Amino acid sequence: MHAQPLDLTRLWGEGWAVTFAPRPPAFCLDAMGVSKAAPLPDGLAAFARRSPFDGPPVLVAAAVLDERWSVVVESEAQTGWVGTHPDVLEALAAPGAPACTATSDPNKVQVVFREYGSPVGGLEPRTNRRWGHFADRTRQSLREAGFPDGHATQEHPVPAAPSEGALALLAAQAVTGTELRAEHLQGSWLGGLTAKPYPTTP
Amino acid sequence: MHRHRIFRISRRAAALAIGLTLLSPQFAVADGPERERTGGSAPLLADSLKPIKLEVGISSAQLKKLRERGKAAERAGKPLPKADVPFQTEHRSERESAAGRADLTFAEAAEFIEQDAERRKAPMNSRVDSYLGQQQTVRTAPLAEGGFTTQATAATIGETPSQALYDSCMTADAASDAGRVYDRFTFCQQVPITAEYWEKDAAGNPVDHLGTTKATLEIVAQGFEDQRTMRLFSQIKQGSVSYDWGWWDNIWTAPGVPLSLFGTCAPDQLDCGASRSPATLTWDNWNNNPSWAYWDISNSATAGYGRDKVMPSFWRVEFFTDTDEFSTDAPGTSPVQVIRCDSAAYIVGPFGADRSHGCVFPGATPILRYSLSGTEAAVAQHILGAQTRPEYTYPRLPAEEEAQRDKSIPGQAINGQPVHYGLHRIHSTLNATEYQANRDHKDGACYGTGPQASRYAGLGLNPPPDTSTQQCDEYPFASTLEGAASPDWDFSVQAVPITDNASAGGKLIAYYNADRILAWDATLPYPDGSNDRFWVEIVD
């Protein structure tokens, strides 16, 4: 039984992206196109000083989750979520440890991930519609988190959650075997601006 | 069998809906608070605008004093002295308290807003008229000069309106009874005022008409985006004062008479409070060295309606001369205007920045703009096609239905003007049922999956999106009541590049928060009319 994930929709509203990667924060930001990363003195509050119509470049911030994993957050998607770019996920994934990004906007909440050396896989957590590559280990992890193998139905529902955003985080945590807790949000963050375009080839 | 789209909005509800969304929005970014005086560059008022009248009595003794003071100034060759009262204080005396009575119902408030729409009326696209059964004409004001650029957050609010905001807002449209709703957070107005002065005897009876003073009253109002408060600014326009008291009194008496401006809640209105005292200067000072006075108009969440504690505040500027020596028989009042405040917890800034309370002018027409040349270009192209050529979109209508009618897809705006029904935002958590239904229909029409898959067999998107590079875009948005599951409207799905779809989604959330678009609340009185609507305009 998994612990109830953070409800980022309640905390941050309907627009955010969270990436889990088995890499250090500076590596993550570099892979996401940040050329000059620097500590954010007041952490995620740095985002509050930006207009929702800022960007590109957009602000991204990364922090340590544990000795192996980092978390990267975004709140500006004027040019799309950088954490969903296939080349970013490819760069962030490591052998036996996928990189995974959960995103939310008013129209859709999705989780995309990439196993090391494999194509991108994705799912919509509310319906459990899936696409792309799912390794057996990933399917099993999602199953253990309460997600059915196929499209969600009344007989085979997705886990109960306070929002689809929370469900997305549950799925992302299941895929990566990590956990984002409230105290992580209050810790030290490294941040920088990026204008990385979506790759022309997936 | 395909769903039947039935037009279900009653005329009454449609009329109320129209009342809540009135004017073309003009978005601009103000450059923060400025201390210098603003004004002076605005157009002159149209002669046809009826002035607002004020009648003031002056005691014979005070008149004598005024004229003696004028003679002294004339002899000394000095200007008339300033009014011997403070310009404005934080204190609001009991007489001036404007805590309104809560005896106006929400329905009456909605009717007021509807009537307000009529004041701002202008012909609308005939297609909308036809949807309203040729009975109800949707009204909106003409697009003001200046065009549009992009959505913007609310301007910074200081102790005076910024010159940039003043210059942008105070165009010819502002010189009207309705004023100009510049955007969701800004209103401005110029109105002519006329003050009639009478000499009164000891018993208070008018004995002689002394003269008439005319001027232009200026009003700027800004809604806060982090509290249930609106800041109301007012002054007399510089150089606008003229006197008709006789040649000597025009120079030495009339300019020395004081005038007070007072921002206040309108009487008999919903829970409303206002701060600060009247602002008083002589006519001469207002004319030559005006200062913006300001008041904060607020209402509380406690009395608000529905999930988001929605509550309008009705407000106006009164002007009068009330001292021991002067008596205002009939104060002047600017036309009553309305602002709507809410406590929507889901309106947030980046990473939880507090935007959970705010006030907007419901007379602004909220419009989301996507660009055919922006990072969301493919989505913009899809929406344009859906709005203008819906018969070519997926899902197809069943053959027997297609022979009867074309698809009809709402939400279009052109040049800042709605030309179809507006969209109502829904929230993934607060409106989970409707949101899920939209998702199910979209999945059925786009991917042939989910519980609605059979409904769209042979009619859905063909081929479906290549999920390695594409996503399924739907219009009207999944986050609208008019989305794929709506029984009243058709919809369109199209495969678009992932990055365009993500960019469009990012701009949508920024827009929802910046324009404070509230999510559908069925518990509001007259929900069809009183919930927020918005439109989508595709630009180059």
UniProtKB/TrEMBL annotation, chain A:
Protein name, as recorded: Uncharacterized protein
From TrEMBL, chain B:
One Pfam family per UniProt: DNase_NucA_NucB
Keyword hit for Transmembrane: no
Designated name of the protein: Deoxyribonuclease NucA/NucB domain-containing protein
Feature: compositional bias, Basic and acidic residues: 89-98
Region Disordered, annotated ranges: 68-99
Keyword field: Signal
Deoxyribonuclease NucA/NucB domain ranges (all copies): 431-514
Provenance organism: Streptomyces aurantiogriseus
Superkingdom of origin: Bacteria
Signal sequence bounds: 1-30
